[in-house]
């Protein structure tokens, strides 16, 4: 019996585990996503974080700059959560240059990655729990920069963990700055081992 060669060479070169995950990735990735290698099996973006994001997210309310300003007027206690990544080496955050973010924000680095190591998952869960300790309805607003999937991932993960009153500000610090609104120096919330 002669075995025919594969007629789709790119698929033939993929590992079996990746081939088996393709239908799951396509089903759970946002509509319009075509490259399964960009998403984990459970639907989080895992590569090319700085690229165009969807217009909205189904697990939260999407806000533009004016809508965010209105929310902050109505709920000044809203927690602004900057999730931009930051190098972590030998138990220390390493900043190459100063970062700016929306005034009053908490900077929770690395919690928007597609795959969270246990330390970052614990850090993220702990911060969310602390923010909701006094008021379980406190709005949580996730952002990073424009065209940044990390805030999309963080919003989605918070929803998966059972949080509600979630907001996603996809324009992030770039949109805030373009609206000529003030920014302040960002300092990461410490991670303790």
Brief overview, please?
The protein has 193 residues and is α/β, with parallel strands linked by helices.
Structural descriptors:
alpha/beta, 193 residues, single chain, globular, disordered N terminus, 6 helices, Oxidized Rhodanese, domain 1, two-stranded antiparallel sheet, 2 domains, five-stranded parallel β-sheet
Q: Which bin fits the share of residues in helices?
A: 25-40%
Tally of domains: 2
| CATH C-level label of the largest domain | Alpha Beta
Taking the alpha carbons of the first and last residues, their distance comes to 60 Å
| Total beta strands | 9
- What's the CATH topology name of the largest domain? Oxidized Rhodanese, domain 1
CATH architecture descriptor text of the largest domain: 3-Layer(aba) Sandwich
The CATH H-level superfamily of the largest domain is Rhodanese-like domain
Unreliable stretches (pLDDT < 50, length at least 5) are: 1-28
How would you write the strand order of the largest sheet? 1-8-7-2-6
Query: Rough shape?
Result: globular
Tally the helices.
6
Q: What are the secondary-structure elements, in order, as H or E? A: HHEHEEEEEHEHEHE
Please give the largest β-sheet.
5 strands, parallel
The secondary structure category is alpha/beta
